[in-house]
Specification:
Blueprint: H1 7-19, H2 22-29, H3 33-47, E1 52-55, E2 58-61, H4 63-90, E3 94-101, H5 109-119, E4 123-130, H6 133-141, E5 147-151, E6 159-173, E7 194-198, H7 203-215, E8 220-225, H8 228-236, E9 241-245, H9 246-249, E10 258-261, E11 267-275, H10 282-295
Parallel strand pairs: 3-4, 3-5, 7-8, 7-9
Antiparallel strand pairs: 1-2, 5-11, 6-9, 6-10, 6-11
Helix pairs in contact: 1-2, 1-3, 2-3, 5-10
Length: 296
């Protein structure tokens, strides 16, 4: 029959091995000397063999005790790691964070926030995936992700929605475009321009079409895409101009495109979504703070 030892017995045994005496072990554990002696005696009785030879006040470990101590040290180091990990969790220095974000934010804003977040948290790991808003909301609601970054409107229960802010739309022009000399562009100035626009299911596309109509301008739409990141990449390749949110356009400045403010106010509304729970994950809240720092 397998011998079952209590944690108290193992703790007392380790203390005696470290201190060399029952008195020293009692001091380490902040308990009485008779209590340590009784615990060791019960442990030897349960094991069926002696752990120490008594020589005056000192206890000389038997070979069996030396062998057992090596195993106990493995356990002790494991407990210390657990304690350190628990401490690190409190201060957001350890653990894993699962983030889902829109493809439009996965090219620049979110990677920069992840870099800031991990810079002071070397023991933290991140899993990042880009998905459509509706799918992100579903996965966050079922706790498959710890937080998500989506665009409104959004209709989903079992999630907590925290406004992230409104982002103005900008015009992205191909390298060397004639309109790049302007400081800002109006939709009227884009009349007849070769344009890459988002798919008609997009909320921003609806706003763009309405604004073009009110301005009495008609663009030449040559490409439609559901991805604003693809629209920027096409503009960088010289296909045409596009209108996207500033957060999406910023990473493409290095590709030689011209990013100009749009005179008309067209905005995308983004939010952070969390699973609807009594409390949020501390690491997720810490990441949100890093993200907001980039928006200030």
């Amino acid at each position: 029959m397998k011998t079952q030892l209590s944690f108290r017995q193992i703790e007392a045994f380790r203390a005696v091995m470290v201190a060399g005496t029952v008195v020293g072990a009692a001091r380490l554990l902040n308990v009485t000397q008779p209590g340590v002696s009784r615990t060791i005696s019960l442990m030897e009785l349960r094991l069926g063999y002696a752990l120490f030879h008594r020589t005056g006040r000192r206890l000389v470990p038997t070979p069996e005790a030396e062998a057992l101590y090596r195993e106990v040290e493995h356990l002790s180091s494991g407990l210390e790691r657990i304690s350190q990990f628990a401490h690190d969790l409190r201060y957001q220095k350890a653990g894993a964070l699962r983030i889902a974000c829109l493809p439009a934010l996965a090219q620049g804003l979110v990677p920069r926030a992840v870099a800031r977040f991990l810079a002071s948290r070397p023991k933290v790991s991140v899993f990042l995936q880009s998905l459509p808003s509706r799918q992100i909301a579903e996965l966050v609601a079922t706790r498959q992700f710890d937080l998500g970054l989506v665009e409104l409107p959004l209709n989903r229960s079992a999630i907590e929605v925290v406004p992230l802010g409104e982002c103005r739309s900008v015009v992205v022009l191909p390298p060397g475009h004639a309109l790049a000399r302007h400081e800002t562009l109006s939709l009227k100035q884009l009349h007849g321009e070769r344009m890459i626009l988002l798919s008609q299911q997009s909320v921003l596309r609806y706003q763009i079409d309405e604004a073009f109509s009110q301005a009495g301008a008609v663009p030449e739409v040559i490409v439609e895409t559901p991805s604003s990141s693809i629209a920027c990449a096409l503009a960088a390749a010289g296909v045409g101009a596009t209108i996207v949110s500033k957060w999406t356009a910023d990473p493409y400045r290095e590709d030689g495109v011209h990013v100009l403010p749009l005179a008309e106010t067209l905005e995308s509304r983004h939010v952070v979504v969390y699973p609807r729970l009594p409390s949020r994950m501390h690491l997720a809240e810490a990441f949100e703070m890093e993200l907001r720092a980039l928006l200030d």
